[in-house]
């Protein structure tokens, strides 16, 4: 069995807001959890994109026509 570490986050909202959401059949806890998990994923993606940008900024682009020549070479080799 896998155990995930969790933490509690408390958020204060107006009582009317909570009541309206619950009357509308909204599971407030689940919606907040899902929103925060999606937001965390976006932050993670931004970090990876930033890392990739740093890795690629010093790499020179390929010469003009490199891909055409490479594909042609592969085709002729078979």
TrEMBL record:
InterPro entries associated with the record: VapB3-like
Highest taxon of the lineage: Archaea
UniProt-recorded name of the protein: VapB-type antitoxin
């Amino acid at each position: 069995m896998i155990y995930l570490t969790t933490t509690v986050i408390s958020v204060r909202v107006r009582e009317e807001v909570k009541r309206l959401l619950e009357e509308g059949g909204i599971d407030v806890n689940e919606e907040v959890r899902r929103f925060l998990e999606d937001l965390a994923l976006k932050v993670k993606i931004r970090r990876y994109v930033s890392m990739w940008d740093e890795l690629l900024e010093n790499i020179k682009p390929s010469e003009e026509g490199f891909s055409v020549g490479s594909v042609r070479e592969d085709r002729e080799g078979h």
